[in-house]
Amino acid sequence: MTLLPFGKLPAAKPRSFVPQAIDLGDWPQIAPLFDRLETQAARVSSAAELECWLLDWSELNAALDEEASRRYIAMTCHTDNAEAERAYLHFVEHVEPQVKPRQFALENIYVAHPRRGELPGLVAAGILPAVEPGFQPGGKNACQQADAIVSQTPAVSTPSPGGRVPAAPGRYQVFDRDVTNHVKLFRPENVALETEEAKLCQQYQKLIGAQTVKFRGEEKTLVQMGRYLEEPDRALRQEAWELVAQRRLQDVDQCDAILDELIKLRMQIAKNAGFDNYRDYAFRQKGRFDYTPADCLEFHRAIEAEIMPAVREIQADRRRQLHLDTLRPWDLAVDPHNRAPLKPFVEVGELVARTQKIFHQLDGELAAGFRQMQDLKLLDLDNRKGKAPGGYQSTLSEARVPFIFMNAIGIQRDVETILHEAGHAFHAQAARGEDLYAYRGAPIEFCEVASMAMELLGGEFLEEFYPAAEANRARKAHLEGIIGFFPWMAVVDAFQHWIYTHPSHTRAERQAAYLELMDRFGGDVDWSGWETMRAHSWHRQLHIFLHPFYYVEYGIAQLGALEVWANSRRDKAKALQDYKAALALGGSRPLPELFHAAGCGFRFDAAAIQPLIQLAGSELKKL
Ligand SMILES: [Zn+2]
């Protein structure tokens, strides 16, 4: 029995390095391939050969990545299947830990390689001096020509007449920058500290995961309690919210203690790597070469100046619609007109068919891409017993095709999710012609432009699911959600900037810094009687504990998505053309270039935000 929803998917390009018959779940069969790459690197004597070597390494990476994805997909589609679980855990426990140090060894070999500076793009970009003055970058490359290329969009420049090949500008610039960065930041003494860090993160997860409440005689997780905040009955909402708050308050000291320890560890990790503070280390470690901490602080100020007035207006409307004197924390998720939830579809087949119609109205190529996913059974969308929660898009890296997983139950959120994940899927399809594995994925700041823009572009055609009035209601809630996300993003990000640039702070000082941010970005919500909860409301944001500084990416991407949408209002065909062209670049260019290709700026200041928030605001007034 196959546990995967899709059948056999041929590799986008036939393998030339990884043996056909290999079992990629068996480390003893994989290890010789890493050995071979190491010995081959020593024999590489030209830039062209180094490119071949990078493609062999890419092929291995793609094969390993697809193996991991297949096992993950099988496991999440069949959580009740012991064999799927065993296969997944085997890979995580016995293959990945072996692969990691070998990958790092290859990265070191690459960085130290005498031919590296001759790679196309590196010489031109002036990153490294040319070793041989007479060298012609991007020369004919036997390993590439032997392959049958399946690509729709060749990313590697093809030979021009006369034999001289103009390299794509900066072809290896981003790859080189990322690998060098990774190698440079590594400190053996940080390995043990990172293990400590992971243990503390696990403690946090355990603490939060154990939080339950007894509600109406039943034990409920705090996540399950979330749905009572949408109940029209205000007393019920308040009861549910207060119960959750009381439960959270029991753990505030432990949460604070875990963060205290994490801060100390992270400071040490940064110091070991030669940084003054953890913020600067985190920026480098995340490969943020194209924006700075100062840009983020500017982003926060711009949100305060340009978005907070819109947030306050939305809150005031909500307060009036609910006929309340003040908005309390339990009044923020309920429908302001106390209407029943929207019901966009009943069967998952309807979700797929109507989404297909949306893409059909949007763009023929995207519609064909989504159709192909159906034909190849690359969608597993229905909620059923034995399926993991949530939704994700995963790419089968060898076949170079996307897969979408979700748990649709017939609510508007499902429609937003499928549009979002389809945006990610279109990204994978668009970049499929790229042979360098590392370039088939883009940085998260841009990946989320692909998906968040699709929520907005597809949202223009929600009439496929609803009568006009209901489609407007869905659009309104979506836009309000987008606007409301920015201030919370600013709080989470700015708070961490403060924490890691004031490393010797006391808990009282930390609380004061947080409350100052809540005053700036919290809007008009009345927390009276629950001041202690307000002061600790960041404890639920797992990123602060588990993924420091990982959050602003969503703010940056949301701005890009709004801009794609704004562009489509002016010229739909051009906006879609730019969107697709940018997706096709994968991760081959630096972030500002990806944004520009999509028709977006790469700025997060007031001047960039103002027109977007104005458009969203005027749109909201129409809905
Ligand atoms: Zn996403």
Lay out the secondary structure.
Layout: H1 27-43, H2 47-77, H3 82-112, H4 142-145, H5 173-185, H6 188-209, E1 212-215, E2 218-221, H7 222-225, H8 234-249, H9 252-272, H10 278-285, H11 293-321, H12 348-362, H13 364-375, E3 379-382, E4 392-396, E5 401-408, H14 412-430, H15 444-459, H16 468-501, H17 507-521, H18 531-535, H19 542-546, H20 552-570, H21 572-584, H22 591-597, H23 606-622
Parallel strand pairs: 3-5
Antiparallel strand pairs: 1-2, 4-5
Helix pairs in contact: 1-2, 1-3, 2-3, 3-5, 6-9, 9-10, 11-16, 11-23, 12-13, 14-15, 14-21, 15-20, 16-17, 16-20, 16-23, 20-21, 20-23, 21-22
Bound molecules: zinc ion.
The site of zinc ion (ZN) has 4 residues, from helix 14 and helix 15.
Mean pLDDT: 92
Helix content: 55-70%
- The percent range for strand residues is under 5%
What is the end-to-end distance? 50 Å
Shape: globular
Class of secondary structure makeup: mainly alpha
Low-confidence stretches: 128-142, 144-167
Overall number of strands: 5
Strand order in space, largest sheet: 3-5-4
Task: Give the topology string: H per helix, E per strand.
Answer: HHHHHHEEHHHHHHHEEEHHHHHHHHHH
Question: How much is the radius of gyration in Å?
Answer: 25 Å
Number of helices: 23
Oligomer: single chain
Question: Main β-sheet, in a few words?
Answer: 3 strands, mixed
Give an overview in words:
By secondary structure, the protein is mainly alpha-helical. It has helices at about 25-45, 45-75, 80-110, 140-145, 175-185, 190-210, 220-225, 235-250, 250-270, 280-285, 295-320, 350-360, 365-375, 410-430, 445-460, 470-500, 505-520, 530-535, 540-545, 550-570, 570-585, 590-595, 605-620, and strands spanning about 210-215, 220, 380, 390-395, 400-410. The strands form two sheets. The protein has a three-stranded mixed sheet with strand order 3-5-4, sandwiched between helices. The chain starts with about 25 loop residues before the first helix and ends with a helix. About 35% of the residues are buried. Bound molecules: zinc ion. The site of zinc ion has 4 residues, from helix 14 and helix 15.
